[in-house]
Amino acid sequence: MATTTAGVLLGYARVSTGHQSLDQQLDALAAAGVRARDIYSDKLSGTSTREQRPGLDKLLADALPGDTIVVVGIDRLGRNAAEVMTTIRDLDNRKIVLRSLREGIDTSTAAGRMVAGVLASLAELELELGRERRSAAREARRARGQHVGRPKALSPEQAALARRMHASGEPVKTIAETLGVSPATVYRIVAEG
Fold first, then answer.
1. Which among 16, 108, 135, 182 is annotated as catalytic?
2. 161, part of any domain
3. How far apart are CA 55 and CA 10, in angstroms?
């Protein structure tokens, strides 16, 4: 049973890439009683640092003792267990409750704080095991003399064509459409020159 507070329900949603949607998280926060005007969000790279998350920074600055911050999952608060736990400790020290919908965590209780810590540690372990698996797979491919990494979007001949088209004044959008790649790929090929 979750402890209620006299403060405001504040929500936070985050996705790791710009092409992902916040909709599912926003719907879950609204269903949990968080008003749309009290939801903070970030759409950022998965490698971003906390300082590059303006939505989270604003939420933490605006939250007051007695408020409850609601997230869909505790992993939304950071990219690793240390960052998540630092945020949870900071909120606890400031008398701000954290509720995580997916895990059913409510840090207003000792059990909720313990479960939050265990889940964050397990999430970090899974990330580390995934990194180790990917590294082992890359090393196995290298040992076999196989290509490692994403395949090139354009062959050397296509890249040369893109550079010639750009040099002759063709717009990047036209080059990208002609070669079936994104404008970002064309910019990268031209820059590699």
1. 16
2. yes
3. 12
Same-domain pairing of 167 and 88: no
Instruction: Report the predicted TM-score, pTM, of the whole model to 2 decimal places.
Output: 0.58
Nearest to 33 by CA among 64, 9, 68, 12: 9
Question: 152-175 burial by CB neighbour count: b if 16+ within 10 A, else e?
Answer: ebbeeebbebbbebbeeeeebeeb
Report the half-sphere exposure of 188 (CA within 13 A, side-chain side). 8
Domain of residue 29: give its range: 9-123
Last residue of a domain, one of 123, 139, 168: 123
Residue 16 is among the residues annotated as catalytic for this protein: yes
Shared domain check, 76 and 33: yes
For residues 40 and 96, membership in a common domain is answered with yes
Number of Cβ atoms within 10 Å of the Cβ of 70 = 22
Q: What is the mean pLDDT of residues 103-124?
A: 82
pLDDT tens figures, 32-61: 999 999 999 998 755 545 557 899 999 999
